[in-house]
Specification:
It is a single chain. The protein is of the alpha+beta class. It contains four helices and eleven strands; from the N terminus they run αββββαβββββααββ. Helix content is 30%, strand content 32%.
Length: 201
């Protein structure tokens, strides 16, 4: 085969590969990205969040505040929060999406359990706040009806979203008993049944 024909075939192959990448793969990726962005419940960035309020029906309100880069529980008790658990809540909230818009406006909220929500989450950053109200589950028990404060739409979200946000005090509080590094321990005393055992480094 002559070199000229090889170059022609190679050029056609490159053109086809470019078409597949730029028109098919890249276009679809951009479409999926735009779709995912449009379905986000909020535009909040987790690194800018400073306050979290969780309120479950017939349960005390749980409030968490970011103070000097550490998260602290302020209601109903004042104690250090589990930093990883809080970060999990923030990530869930930042990435939260809705499955479907059921109604655009004129919603009878009481029909979906949203007149008196089962669960409410409010996230605040330096400039704004976002509140999501969770109502009843759908007939299939796989999703929840949701209302966003300031939004007239009735939304449907996956049940995993509520489950990931609706945390208890025990799940959010710091569970570490001791914060002493093992290398700093010089003496351990164990008392059982009136007998004392002492261990020294």
């Amino acid at each position: 085969m002559k070199l000229g024909k090889v170059l022609i075939y190679f050029g056609i192959l490159v053109a086809l590969a470019s078409y597949v990448y730029f028109v098919e793969i890249r276009y679809k990726t951009e479409q999926e990205t735009r779709k995912a962005e449009a379905e986000r419940l909020t535009k909040v960035e987790k690194d800018k969040i400073t306050e979290v309020d969780l309120t479950a029906k017939d349960a005390p309100k749980i409030s968490v505040r970011k103070i000097d880069d550490n998260w602290l529980l302020t209601e109903p008790i004042k104690v250090k929060a589990d930093q990883k658990a809080i970060q999990s809540v923030l990530t869930t909230f930042e990435q939260a999406q809705f499955e479907k818009v059921l109604k655009e406006k004129d919603v009878a909220w009481q029909e979906y359990g949203l007149e008196q929500p089962e669960f409410t989450v409010t996230i605040k950053d330096r400039d704004d706040s976002v509140t999501l109200y969770f109502g009843e589950s759908n007939p299939a028990k796989t999703s929840y009806y949701v209302r966003k404060k300031g939004d007239d739409r009735l939304l449907l979200v996956a049940d995993t979203l509520k489950n990931s946000l609706n945390k208890s005090i025990l799940q959010l509080r710091e569970k570490t008993v001791l914060t002493v590094a093992p290398s700093q321990v010089e003496r351990v005393v164990v008392v059982k049944d009136g007998k004392e055992i002492e261990l020294k480094r």
